[in-house]
Design brief:
With 79 residues, the protein is of the alpha/beta class. The chain is built from two helices and five strands.
């Protein structure tokens, strides 16, 4: 099985949609989670790059996921 190197995350109030891509950009994983299950899944997932929309609710989530070793890139150049 291919390794997920990039995760696209669509965040909402109650549900989170995740799409994982391999190093060639092919989607290899699609899942939907609530907040608790998302945190558990990503805490146990190997560190990778995660992209998501920038909104006021994303700041807490980014800090939490960074504590699991994941990386982020914003449109402002911060990592």
């Amino acid at each position: 099985m291919a390794t997920v190197t990039l995760i696209g995350l669509d965040i909402g109030k109650n549900s989170f949609h995740l799409i994982g891509h391999d190093q060639h950009g092919h989607p290899i994983l699609k899942k939907q989670f609530n907040r608790t299950l998302l945190l558990g899944f990503l805490a146990n997932h190997s560190a990778c790059r995660i992209v998501m929309e920038a909104c006021c609710g994303a700041h807490w989530l980014v800090r939490k996921l960074q504590s699991f070793g994941h990386r982020f890139k914003s449109d402002r150049g911060h990592q």
